Amino acid sequence: MDITIFLAQLWGPVISAVAIGVFVSRTYYIKIYRELEKDALAVLLFGMVGMVVGIAHVLAHNVWGTFPQILVTLLGWSLLIKGTLFVVAPGFVDRAGDKWVSLKLIPFAGGLMLLAGAYLSWVGYFA
């Protein structure tokens, strides 16, 4: 099985489920974020896990060919960058998250996630 298809099969349903959760339970997701920012150790662990998974993803799939390959590669790099920011600059991540909430960009992010998740699911299971 092609690694792009495999990763699309993993990422697609997860991203879709989180995106639907953002629309159905937006206050719950904001609450999760607010609780996470209160626990410094959880932020550090989240960042470390994000870095490890991001590095593994990029090492396994760093392909910039077709659109699905680019999207899957961008997910790996995004996870690596986000994890690194959580470890190196947690204050920046906290302020950026507050800005997204205050600007009411959560539905926009949820919409992008839903599109990406549905597309990856389609590529992974039906294309």
TrEMBL record:
Lineage of the organism: Bacteria, Candidatus Tayloriibacteriota
Keywords of this entry: Membrane, Transmembrane, Transmembrane helix
Name recorded for this polypeptide: Uncharacterized protein
TM regions (residue ranges): 6-29, 41-64, 70-93, 105-125
Species the sequence originates in: Candidatus Taylorbacteria bacterium RIFCSPHIGHO2_01_FULL_46_22b
